[in-house]
Amino acid sequence: MTASPTPSSPSTPWWKKSVVYQIYPRSFCDSNGDGIGDLPGITQRLDHLAELGVDVVWLSPIYKSPQDDNGYDISDYRDIAPEFGTLADFDALLAAMHARGIRLVMDLVVNHSSDEHAWFQSARTRRDSPYHDYYIWAEPAPGGGPPTNWEAAFNGSVWEWNEPTGEYYLHMFSKKQPDLNWENPALRQEVYALMRFWLDRGVDGFRMDVINMISKPWRADGSLPDAPVVREGFLQPGFALTCNGPRLVEFLREMREQVLDHYDTLTVGEAPMATIEQGIALTHPENGALNMLFQFEHMDLDSQPGHSNGKWALKPLDLRDLKTTLARWQTALDGQGWNSLYLSNHDQPRPVSRFGDDRRYPVESAKMLATWLHGHQGTPYVYQGEELGMDNVAFDDIADYRDIETLNIYRVATQERGVAPRDILRSIHAKGRDNARTPMPWTGEAPGAGFTTGTPWIRLNPGFVRSNAQALRADPQSVFHYYRELIALRKSQPILTDGRFELLLAQDRHVYAYTRTLGDETWLVLCHFGGGEPEGTPRAIDGADDPTWSRWLAQGVQGTRVIGNWPGPERVALAGLTLRPWEALILALD
Ligand code: NOJ
What we know:
The chain contains 18 helices and 21 strands. The protein is α/β, with parallel strands linked by helices. Among the domains are: 17-109 and 340-371 and 379-393 and 438-496, Glycosidases (TIM Barrel); 118-170, Oligo-1,6-glucosidase, Domain 2 (Oligo-1,6-glucosidase, domain 2, Alpha-Beta Complex), CATH 3.90.400.10; 499-589, Sandwich (Immunoglobulin-like). A hairpin with a 2-residue loop joins strand 15 and strand 16 (521-528). The structure holds 1-deoxynojirimycin. 1-deoxynojirimycin binds at residues 69, 72, 109, 173, 209-210, 270, 346-347. It comes from Amphibiibacter pelophylacis. This is Alpha-glucosidase.
C-alpha cells in the first residue's frame, strides 16, 4: 500500500512539519558483500525508517566519483557510482521510499566538481576549451607562487598549478575538488539542468553542499584578494571571504526562479560561517531562495576560537554559549526565515560523546539531547545511528582512519607542526569525521553487524554488540523508541512546529530551559546537561534571577508531562522541581 507523505497545510508547508533522516550511503547497508554500503542495501532497510516515522531522507552523494572525499567530488552528476549501484537501483529506492510516504532529498555538490569530471578534464588541457571558464584560474602572484594566501579546508594552499595551461586553479577543498565558476552563465545553466534531471526523476529536493561559497569575491580587475591573516597561523583564511560572496543571493534567486519554483521541494543550504543576516536573506518566506540553512555556530563552541589548529583545538562546551547562539537564531528567524535543527551529520562527531556522557549515562544523555534538539523551532535532522545513540570511536592507529581531512591533519600536525601523535589522535577521537562514518550496526552479530557479509571499508564501532538496531527496536525503553515518540509528537502537535521560542535561565551552566508558545498554550522544555554535583545528585533549578521563572513560582505554576527520559508523575509543580542526571522533561503548562 502507498502511504501518503506529510501534507502541507495553508500556513505550514510540509518541510516545516517534517523530520529528516540523513543517510551516508557508504556506511548504511551493504547488499553485495563488497564492504561498502549501497542503494539496494538502503532499500532493504527502509522499514527501519518507516518505523522511526521520519518524513524525508537526505542521501549524501551517490553520484559517480573517484571518492577522494567520499563522493563530495563528483565526476558525473547524472550517474550513480558503481559501488553504490545503478540508476535502476536508484529508481527502485525512490519508488520504495515514496510507497512508504517518505520523500527523498539529494545532495547537490556544485561549489566544486571532481577533477575527473569531463568538464575539468577538458578545461585543464587548453585555455580555449569551451569548459575552461567553468573553473577558476589565476596567474601566479607577481613574485611567483600561489595567487592568494587562502588555505584549503583539507590543508595546504587552495591553488594548484596546472602545467598544460600554465596557471593555477582554485580548490577550496582537496586538489581533486576544483571550484566551479558561477560567474559563467553556461555553467549555471548546466547546474540547473542537472537539478531538473533529478527532480524530473522524482526527487523531492536538495541539500546543497557549501552553497554559500559559490560567489567568489572578485575585484574589478578580475583578481581575487588576499585574506587578512587575522592571527599568525590562522587556518583557512580564504573561507571568511568566500562564504558570503557579492552575487550569492542573486545566483540562488536565479536558481529558484529557473528551477525550484517549478517543483515542490525541500531545500537546505549548507552554509559555513553563515550569519543571521545571511540566514534571513536566504530563507525569508517571501523572497528567500532556500527553505533553510545549516549554520555552524553551535558546532564551533567546543573549539578554541582563532586557534591555528582550528576545530582540532579542543575546548569544553560552556552551556551558556550554546544558549546564546541557538537563542539568537531561534528568535531572529521566527517569521523571518526557518531553522534547521541538527547536532550531527557525516562531518561531526557523535553528539552523545560530544555533548552528553557516553560512559555513565549513554541512554539518558542521548535521549536528553534528542529532546533538547527536537523541542526547538525548525526542521529536525537525525543522522544515521543517532537514533541508536551511537558514540565516537577511538582507533589507536591512524591506519584505521579513512577520512581525507583526518589523514591530512594527522600528517600536517605530526610532520610539519611537531605535534605528538597521541595529542593529535586525542583531537581526532573527539572531532574526526570518521566518528560518524563507522557502519550502521543492524545486528549484534560479529563480524559485520548486519552491515556487510564482507570486510567493511572502515572498522565498526565495537559498541555494536549491545547497541544495534535489532536490539534497540526490541527494547521499548531504548533511544530508538524515544526518537520514535519525539517524531510522532512533532507530527501531532503544531506547537512544536509553529510555537514561538523563548529562552529561560540564560545564566544557568547546567540546565537549558526554553518555552514554546502557540496561542494560549505554552510548553516548557527542561534539559539537564550534566550528571549532577556530586555525580548522580538531582539538580535543583535556581531561577531566582529569571523574572519569568520567579513569576511562575510565585503563581504556583504546574504542568502536565508531555515527554521525558526519566520516569515521573503526570502532574509536575515547578516549585521544588529537581532534574536527575541528563534528565529532559517537556511540560504543557497550565
Ligand atoms: C561539506 C560536506 O558535508 C563535506 O563532507 C565535504 O567534505 C565538503 N563539504 C566538501 O564538499
